[in-house]
Amino acid sequence: MSVPKVRKAPAPPKVPEGVEMLDNTDAECKVLTPATDDELAVREKCSFGNCCGSSMLGEEVVKETCRDSTKTEFIDDETTYTFSCYEDARRFVMSLSAIAVSVAFYV
């Protein structure tokens, strides 16, 4: 006789030692390790639901902060800024790398 096991929700990932999660929106996400030719910069972690990204006014990056990862713009002091997460760009670059490796492997 087979009895199904009760599933449990996975434990949330642990924040690496020495890295604090930034709980408030608009917290500055400072660079911990600068970018190199091979790797992107490592920044302070934002709290769940937020991501580190650039706040832009037109084409100019005004600041790099933690904000709601589902929003692409926000209003501050009656000025509208656009916002995009750096994590999304990292995933996109990683996806392109995976595709390139797959294509090279099959050619």
Radius of gyration: 18 Å
Q: Strand order, biggest sheet?
A: 6-5-8-7
Series of secondary-structure elements, N-terminal to C-terminal: EEEEEEEEH
Sum up the overall morphology in one term: extended
Percent range for β-strand residues: 25-35%
List low-pLDDT spans: 88-96
Largest sheet: 4 strands, antiparallel
Describe, in plain words, how this protein is organized in 3D.
The chain has one helix and eight strands. The strands form three sheets. Strands 6-5-8-7 form a four-stranded antiparallel sheet. Strands 1-4 form a two-stranded parallel ribbon. It is 20% helix and 35% strand. A hairpin with a 2-residue loop joins strand 5 (50-57) and strand 6 (60-68). The chain has one domain (25-106). Residues 88-96 have low confidence and may be disordered. It is of the alpha+beta class.
Q: What labels describe this entry?
A:
about 110 residues, 8 strands, alpha+beta
List the helices and strands and how they pair.
Blueprint: E1 21-22, E2 31-33, E3 42-43, E4 45-46, E5 50-57, E6 60-68, E7 73-76, E8 79-85, H1 86-106
Parallel strand pairs: 1-4
Antiparallel strand pairs: 2-3, 5-6, 5-8, 7-8
Could you give a short description of this structure?
The chain has one helix at residues 86-106, and strands spanning 21-22, 31-33, 42-43, 45-46, 50-57, 60-68, 73-76, 79-85. It is built from one helix and eight strands; from the N terminus they run E-E-E-E-E-E-E-E-H. By secondary structure, the protein is α+β, with helices and mostly antiparallel strands.
